[in-house]
């Protein structure tokens, strides 16, 4: 009991330190200022937290959010006030069920798209199964709740679905993960087969040292011109692919300018998880975190800069995972237009990035309060606006 109370007290201390830092950094929580652009908090969604609902996508036609209850393991739709419209249990065996493990969840062309380890399943807005496509992935994700939003690319009749987008979880820190994730897997609906011709790693993946927990490919789909953006957490470039004649072609590399990026040294292969060396590498190194395509030519690069030094001594005693970055890390946004950096760093709000909306808006899930058990989960809707407007 004493050990449990001690650990809880440490988590509370971490929260207090983080809260103090956040309050000192932002005078106005509704406006995050940069030299050239600003992020303005436009709206919020308050969701009852009794069943721990995660939002993954937004249906613009129905004006509803698609979510998943982690406690009940059920699919959920919510209105813009955060109220549950419908809750459906599709887990398990049977003709209408998706199985027991779920990887990705999203909306595509007024249909609900679910990726499991073995199938791609489409449901109607009424949760009736429309179609199912089996596939054999090289990655097995043992999760009963989704990791990310389902990603699609392509025009009518030529759509593909990205099988492994931005799945940030501890499995990627293992030695064998480099070979597993060397290629980006996608399902070709035209040919009804799984392909993996997009290479995410170069030959350096065969060296005897590794950046543990820095191996997750980061993917974004530019819906404005149907291109795929791909980078890695420690990369100095973004590769852009287009798809023609059922093949992916790299059309360009975009050089990244990140002035305050903190580099760390790799560790020998075989360094065990949970060791001090692994934890120090995790806590001390910067990494690219996400990409947001705001228009055909403008995208935002989100990167994790660092943990505050006052937090590191506390966090190094904890079990490290990616949620610590979303909760406590200093996240920054850099904007690019026509492949050229156009903004200084803008502080990016902490939390889980959910999805992009129209008019340069996006949704962030506020980190849960570790000090008290909250009755609600809050989602913030931010909008990127030029300071010239």
Automatic annotation (TrEMBL):
This is 6-bladed beta-propeller protein. It comes from the Bacteria.
């Amino acid at each position: 009991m004493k050990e449990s109370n001690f650990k809880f007290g440490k988590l509370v201390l971490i929260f207090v330190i983080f809260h103090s830092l956040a309050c000192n950094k932002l005078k106005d929580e509704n406006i995050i200022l940069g030299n050239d652009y600003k992020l303005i908090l436009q709206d919020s969604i308050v969701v009852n937290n009794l069943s721990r609902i995660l939002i993954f996508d937004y249906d613009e036609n129905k004006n509803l959010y698609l979510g998943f209850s982690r406690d009940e393991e059920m699919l959920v739709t919510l209105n813009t006030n955060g109220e549950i419209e419908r809750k459906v249990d599709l887990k398990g065996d049977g003709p209408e069920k998706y199985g027991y493990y779920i990887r990705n969840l999203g909306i595509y062309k007024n249909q609900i798209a679910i990726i499991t380890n073995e199938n791609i399943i489409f449901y109607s807005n009424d949760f009736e199964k429309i179609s199912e496509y089996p596939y054999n992935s090289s990655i097995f994700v043992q999760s009963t709740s989704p990791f990310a939003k389902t990603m699609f690319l392509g025009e009518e009749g030529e759509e593909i679905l990205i099988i492994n987008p931005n799945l940030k979880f501890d499995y990627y820190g293992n030695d064998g993960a480099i070979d597993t994730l060397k290629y980006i897997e996608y399902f070709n609906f035209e040919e009804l087969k799984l392909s993996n011709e997009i290479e995410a790693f170069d030959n350096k993946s065969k060296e005897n040292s590794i950046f543990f927990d820095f191996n997750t490919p980061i993917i974004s789909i530019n819906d404005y011109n149907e291109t795929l953006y791909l980078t890695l957490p420690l990369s100095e470039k973004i590769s852009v692919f287009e798809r023609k004649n059922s093949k992916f072609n790299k059309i360009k590399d975009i050089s990244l300018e990140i002035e305050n990026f903190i580099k760390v040294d790799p560790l020998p292969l075989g360094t065990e998880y949970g060791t001090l060396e692994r934890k120090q590498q995790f806590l001390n190194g910067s990494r690219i975190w996400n990409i947001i395509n705001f228009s055909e030519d403008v995208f935002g690069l989100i990167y994790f800069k660092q943990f505050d030094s006052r937090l590191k001594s506390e966090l190094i005693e904890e079990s490290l995972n990616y949620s610590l970055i979303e909760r406590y890390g200093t996240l920054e946004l850099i904007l690019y237009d026509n492949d050229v950096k156009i903004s200084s760093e803008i502080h990016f709000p902490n939390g889980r990035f959910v999805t992009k909306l129209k008019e340069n808006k996006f949704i962030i899930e506020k980190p849960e309060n570790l000090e008290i058990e909250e009755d609600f989960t809050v989602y913030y809707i931010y909008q990127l606006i030029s300071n010239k407007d």
